[in-house]
Amino acid sequence: MIIKKIKTNQFKDKNILITGCSKGIGKSLTIKLSQLGSNVIMLGRNERKLDELYDSIKEKYGTEPCILKCDLNSLNEEKAQEIANIIPEHYKCLDGVIFNAAILEKMSNIDGFDLKTWQKVLNVNLTSSFLLFKYLIPLLKNSVSPRIIFTTSSVGKKAEAFWGPYAVSKAGTNALADILTSELEPVSNIKIFNFNPKATQTDMRSLAYPAENPRKVKKPESLMDYYLWMLSIESASFEGNYIEYQS
User: Are 51 and 20 in contact (CB under 8 A)?
Assistant: First the structure.
């Protein structure tokens, strides 16, 4: 699809939670939204990188970011509820959630994965999204135009050899996005998107394709117009939820 131009002043004072925001796509999103005046709730596990990003945002853009240190592999209902309780202490509502965090761990045939690795990938890439959504939904309902954006992958639609639990987790992400679209959009103003960024310069991409020349792969910044459109009021009339990057 063709991403149309949007009014960027609509992002000022928006409160948006992003998972996995200390590097890659998540970091680019955090910086871009902060440039536009949004308050980014940064959820991640690397406290040093989160602190550095927080300090940079405060100095350059003067917004009101927040750090939520969390290992998504160990997220449970109690911790998800704690996160949901913290956010209203700082913000009136939650305008968007971008489920960006994901891990690959390794490329292997299925019988080469041990149960611990399998469960870790599913926990971080899929189960954590379910848990966070479950407890954040009341905060999203207080927003004028709330958005939930999942970040999926091509192997979630057509699985390939050696992608193991990652492909399974992204197939599950696609299903979760479809379920939430069917359940929420007819009865609320919450809009769901499921975005496939395709090949992008990230640490995960380097792990999956070690022989690839990264300079021939687009940078995360190339995706920003897609995410901004999905978060915008202009996307409200879009039918369906699946969007993929078009080169």
Answer: no
